[in-house]
Amino acid sequence: MSEWKQVAALEEIPRLGSRVVKTTTQDIAVFRTAEDKVFALHDHCPHKGGPLSQGIVHGDKVTCPLHGWNIGLCDGQAMAPDVGNTACIEVKLENGLVFLKV
Amino acid sequence: MEKMKLVVIGNGMAGMRTVEELLKIAPDLYDITVFGDEPHPNYNRILLSPVLAGEQTVDDIVLNSRDWYAENNITLHAGKRVNKIDRVKRIVYAEDGATFAEYDRLLLATGSKPFILPVPGKELEGVIGFRDISDVDAMIEASNTHKHAVVIGGGLLGLEAANGLAIRGMDVTVVHLHDWLLERQLDSVAGKMLQKSLEDKGLKFLLGKQTEQLIGDNGRVKAVRFKDGQEVPADLVVMAVGIRPNFALAESAGIHCNRGIVVNDTMQTFDPRIYSVGECVSHRGTSYGLVAPLFEMAKVCATHLANFGIGRYTGSVTSTKLKVTGIDLFSAGDFMGNDKTDEIVLHDAVGGVYKKLVLEGDRLVGACLYGDTADGSWYFQMLKDSKEVHEIRDHLMFGQNHLGDAGHKGQTQAAAMPDNAEVCGCNGVCKGTIVKAIKEKGLFSLDDVRKHTKASASCGSCTGLVEQILASCIGGAYQPADTKNKPMCGCTDLNHGEVRAAIRERKFLDIPTVQRELKWRTPNGCASCRPALNYYLISTWPHEAQDDPQSRFINERAHANIQKDGTYSVVPRMLGGITTPDELRAIADAADKYKVPTVKVTGGQRIDLLGVKKDDLPKIWNDLSQAGMVSGHAYGKSIRTVKTCVGAEHCRFGTQLSMAMGVKLEKMLFGMWAPHKVKLAVSGCPRNCAEAGIKDVGVIGLESGYELYVAGNGGIKTDVAQFFCKVQTDEEVMEYSAAFLQLYREEGYYLERTVHYVERVGLDYVKSKVVEDAANRKALYERLQYALQGYQDPWADRVAETPKRRQFELISI
Ligand code: SRM
Ligand SMILES: Cc1cc2nc3c(=O)[nH]c(=O)nc-3n(C[C@H](O)[C@H](O)[C@H](O)COP(=O)(O)OP(=O)(O)OC[C@H]3O[C@@H](n4cnc5c(N)ncnc54)[C@H](O)[C@@H]3O)c2cc1C
Ligand code: SF4
Ligand code: FES
């Protein structure tokens, strides 16, 4: 059963940056955009598994640090012409606190 | 809100390219309607020649399928010719009388029409131009049922038509008014060589002939008669004597035309709501007949349609290739020359190679190559950049391959490579894959090929080869990237130089301001412009502009080098490659404590601890700091290492204390960020054991002082450093090196190493700023010292429990 879990305060994630949340099964990258929207993806690039949390965030995309694929934060889809996708994790922001559904 | 309406007349290459560019930058601005005279979706007109020659099919050459129009909500009226534009009501009407469309903006992209000689008999059946799919169909049909073809016009189109018809089994005669073929592309020597090769393929030529009349029989053409009375049989006559911009519709609507639809540098016509691109326009008095300039127009026009109001089209230099399989020819610029120019000519009649380069002063202004066109794009690039060539003039003719031992730049003959030959070693891409992508996806530029195949997208050493493959697949449509005016990235049309200048002149201090003031298209840039902007800001306004870690590549944010498995490497600084037993013990202890899988001596004379987990980084740094070690910046666009040899302290040949000199330099430069990484070396004598000859700054000790070398590079392409000057004292070595590096820091473009910077601005210029101008040298030296003042070791800075440390901590749940 998955449930909402508080993982961090918004200000603990840098703007245009991310933090890594470790669960027993996987690493989750939690991103914060310039407009303070938060997104969460499996921290695993569809190309060769690069840690997306370490990429540069711009708009609602992140550029993978290993070979530069661009991955959409909303849907985990690689931008054309690359093809692939990464799982999204449900995330919400309440009173400045970030929650993940895990 | 209701969207604005954009109507496009002309469903061809320029019009649709503009729509594509527009959709990229402003996908939701317009409701788009396209009218096309031809019953097909947009196809690659250039490839009609291979279709005629049976090398490709019509399906292969479609650029935008009907699905593409539907997916982008574009209404396509294919097979409907527009015959009226009402500029007052802003409505266009099609010939069928039933279809019409209202517009807020109108784009005219009606292309051009083949010029048909005004001779008696021109209306006969079997007399056609070579412009569209219906012409190709008519030619294929004729080749099945008839024998004799005459092509009037020995230009590019005419020869491609003649070649195709001959391959389809017709007996083809090419008639040409001039004394040699392709007189607009080739000089007479190359023209004659071409004629010989085509005759070997079975074509016949009648040169210096003027057509008087086409003779018919039952309504179909039967023969061509010339002014001198001679007649040749002809069941098919293809007129390829030139094209005329198609502007009748615009003119009938009262839009100002002068041998084309007159547009300004923003591609706007005299009616501000109406734009025009493609072969139908007359821009600064010129009309173009090749796609590369049309694509540039399309890009500019799209930015204006999108209301960005940036970018100007200022004209193009074009080059041509003939797309006849087995024949290589290339020409560009002014290849005929005049009384102000010199020529360098190579002519091997037996080997079938002819090359002529035309120079005006120190610059290349024209090139004409026949038989061996491997260096065509290289010459074209120099020509467009109007680069000074005096330094390489004596081997210019022998091509790029011949310039030094060219590392592995791979300037081999692309056309001769087999399909399974690997082109890009980084991404494992073979020639066949690239050719296939170019043909199937309709790619035109190096960037397109990079995006779709990844070839040349990593280290870039195969770029020259990929350019050649492009040129051999798409002929004159290939336009090498304009290295001078290339925009920084897709977020802006400004180039690096313009952005640097704006940051300096308008004193921008942070990235959001730059992006707002310079009208960036994206909300916060992308992974290529943000690191560049961050560097430009901190190097232009040290201690004033704020460094933005989120705009740095992960290595510079984590102060360690990311590995393929997401772990990091740790390289402590060892000034001048010198260490102590205590340091080595501390490294050994740290390696044990953090279970470091690999300990390696690097090529930079220090030790690398590879495979450290990110959350261990602050801990291992803390241990190393206790032993007095600091970051080696092995990860940054920054000072890397100063390699040294043992030198006069121990070596029997040593003339100078190279270790001490190296340590002083490395200390001085600690914390220096740069456009790219910077490496130095100091050798104690000319035997040069520290390899100073391939460093950004190389120092070689002599009895009487030091020799300084600059702009060497030992990486992707080996470039030997160039002699800079001779100095006497250690203090001078520091001052000159620092001044050179500061100039590079202030003027270099992001990701440009010193070798490329010096290549761009010229060594003489750099010498004039650093060696010859003592006051300027001192000022540069002082500016570097000021910028580096108070720099803290980034590792020590992240050991303490501050927000800076947060990124290394995992959140566990
Ligand atoms: C560790 C080291 C190899 C080694 O084990 O010896 C190394 C490792 C890397 N080099 Fe290097 N280079 C290393 C010495 C060199 C040298 C030799 C030297 O410095 O004397 C060169 C040629 C000299 C030169 O730079 O002119 C060299 C030319 C390159 C290049 C090509 C640069 C160029 O402009 O041509 C790259 C690619 C780049 O920077 O874009 C590169 C890139 C890399 C990267 C950072 C690739 C990357 O972006 O991840 C490698 C990181 C590997 C990793 O997993 O951590 N490395 N690299 C060396 C570290 C030296 C140090 O102590 O700092
Ligand atoms: C056989 C051949 C080979 C070529 N090879 C090369 C080459 O190797 N390299 C190179 O750079 N260039 C080459 N070109 C030239 C290149 O194809 C043209 O420069 C390019 O297609 C021009 O684009 P355009 O959009 O201006 O015109 P077009 O592509 O001709 O598009 C104009 C379209 O507008 C339509 N149209 C016109 N009037 C109306 C109207 N009133 N209503 C509706 N529709 C209308 C036409 O039917 C046409 O489809 C070649 C051309 C041909 C014919
Ligand atoms: S260390 Fe350098 S040469 Fe070796 S694989 Fe990595 S980038 Fe290539
Ligand atoms: S692993 Fe992400 S781009 Fe290669």
Features:
heterodimer; A: 102 residues; mainly beta; Rieske Iron-sulfur Protein; three-stranded antiparallel sheet; 9 strands; globular; B: 813 residues; alpha/beta; five-stranded parallel sheet; 25 helices; elongated; binds siroheme; binds flavin-adenine dinucleotide; binds iron/sulfur cluster; binds FE2/S2 (inorganic) cluster
Report on this structure.
The complex is a heterodimer of chains A (102) and B (813). Chain A has strands spanning 4-9, 17-22, 27-32, 38-42, 56-58, 61-63, 70-72, 91-94, 97-101. Chain A is mainly beta and 102 residues long. Chain A has a single domain (4-101), classed as Rieske [2Fe-2S] iron-sulphur domain (Rieske Iron-sulfur Protein), CATH 2.102.10. A three-stranded antiparallel beta sheet of chain A has the order 1-9-8, with no helix packed on it. A three-stranded antiparallel beta sheet of chain A has the order 2-3-4, with no helix packed on it. In chain A, strands 5-6-7 form a three-stranded antiparallel beta sheet, with no helix packed on it. Chain B is α/β, with parallel strands linked by helices. Chain B is elongated and about 105 Å long. Helices cover 31% and strands 21% of the residues of chain B. The model of chain B is unreliable at 403-412 (pLDDT under 50). In chain B, a hairpin with a 5-residue loop joins strand 30 (598-601) and strand 31. The chains are: A mainly beta (102), B alpha/beta (813). Chains A and B meet through strand 1, strand 2 and strand 5 of A and helix 16 and strand 37 of B. Strand 2 (17-22) of chain A pairs parallel with strand 37 (811-812) of chain B. FE2/S2 (inorganic) cluster binds next to loops of chain A.
